[in-house]
Amino acid sequence: MIVEINFDGLIGPSHNYAALSPGNLASARNSGAVSRPRDAALQGIAKQRAALALGLVQGVLLPHDRPASGWLGHLGYAIDAAIDDPLQLARAMSASPMWTANAATVSPAADTRDGQCHLTVANLMAMPHRSHEAAATLVQLRVAFANAAFAVHDAVPTFGDEGAANHMRLAERHDAPGVEIFVYGVDGGGFPARQSRVASEAVARRHGLDPARTLFVQQATAAIRAGAFHNDVVAVANETVVFAHEFAFADPARFAADLARVAPWAEIITVPDAAVSLADAITSYLFNSQLVTLPDATMTLILPTEAQENSRVAAHLDSLIGGNGPIRAVRFVAVRESMRNGGGPACLRLRVVADPATVDPRFLVDDAKLDRIAGIVAAHWPVEIGPDDVARPGLWAQCRAARGALLDALNLVSLS
Ligand code: SUG
Question: Which of 133, 162, 306, 337 is catalytic?
Fold first, then answer.
């Protein structure tokens, strides 16, 4: 049966706060803070359990090798030697593959010319610490989605592509042909516009999408400038609903008109700036939520607890749920460690609409498997990482051993 599967990035043992992402306000704000990788990973696992409890199908993607020795090697550094280059070391130690919404863009089989589900790995070239993710992501996705139901493409060259975080899909049901919306940036008002339209168009071509059911929509400069470095910080979509901030898109009226033409059954729920300002939307991550359809066909919004703690956002959510709209319930999850680097519930997951039977089962989880993973995290993940620890060879060894134990337990040592 074709369903939506959420593949969460398991938060890696090197999770730390190095402020590597200009334009990502949370990451900048927590510069130099002490991180808690073990808590971070357990928070992510608890979020996955919450999704399972709602009756959703859940998968995982695994942390990458850290420090990124291949990348350091290309820069001429030997990993066993002392490396006196704190910035490159921090870039090599980032646990950023946890945000799997940036791993790839996914077009389900119902949307593509050849009837395969297509995935294109994101090149993440706008940020040096993320630019070396693509190679390892490709290897992993080719294992997870080796079945002929899928086509996994390597990254688009030259033009910035940040994956599903800038892509929304609407369909009357997940398994029906849909409309794919690619959101790109032109001007970040002083911050990088990470997603280029050229890359989005390339992904759409490679996936064999029908141009009549594909939209390219420009992100508002004001949104990027306010801290929406990806569109999923100000908008989320599921089946027939787009839930977005008033200032998410450069030309919202045109977006609404185009959508009404290609998807007359779709509905845009706009949150006015007067109710929730862009600043509130970005600190609370109201829109970086998972809008999901439950087995009973109702929609629930899975939000970070930060959204509950902002009184204006909480009041707006109350009125949303109290109204007669399609979003019937909210559920809060605590992913604070990830949030402090600008990664909310939606960043932590890659959606793949497919038959779970076609996915390599080593990447699917149930509660028992999450228990096993949590046991490995509790035994091997560092409790804390401070800014000076990143250059400590002892920490590098611990991170490698921790990931090794995980790969071993999941029978995925081939990824090492
Ligand atoms: O790319 N943070 C990530 C957060 C990604 C969130 N993903 C989505 N919105 N889908 C980023 O900016 C911070 C790492 C650091 O500063 O150490 C970081 O990479």
Answer: 162
**Side-chain-side CA neighbours of residue 404 (13 Å):** 6
Q: State pTM to two decimals.
A: 0.98
Confidence of residue 160 (pLDDT cuts 50, 70, 90): very high
Distance of CA 151 to the CA centre of its chain: 20
The backbone region for 257, taken as left when phi is positive above 0, alpha when psi lies in -120 to 50, beta otherwise, is alpha
pLDDT, residue 310, reads: 98
Q: How confident is the model at residue 82 (pLDDT cuts 50, 70, 90)?
A: confident
CATH number at residue 393: 3.75.10.20
DSSP strand pairing (235-238 vs 241-245): antiparallel
Give the range of the structural domain holding residue 36, as residue numbers without chain letter: 3-415
- CA of 3 from ligand 1 middle (Å) equals 27
- Distances in Å between the Cα of 317 and the Cα atoms of 18, 247, 309, 321 are 33, 18, 12, 6
Burial of 185 (0-12, 13-18, 19+ CB in 10 A): buried
Pocket test for ligand 1, best of 7, 11, 27, 290 (most atoms within 8 A of CB): 27
Q: What average pLDDT does the structure give for the chain?
A: 97
Residue 124 CA to ligand 1 centre (angstroms): 11
Q: Are strands 364-365 and 235-238 parallel, antiparallel or unpaired?
A: unpaired
d(CA 54, CA 30): 32
Residues 6 or more apart in contact with residue 378 via CB below 8 angstroms: 38, 42
Q: Count of domains in the chain?
A: 1
Determine if residue 382 is left, alpha or beta; phi over 0 gives left, psi from -120 to 50 gives alpha, anything else beta.
beta
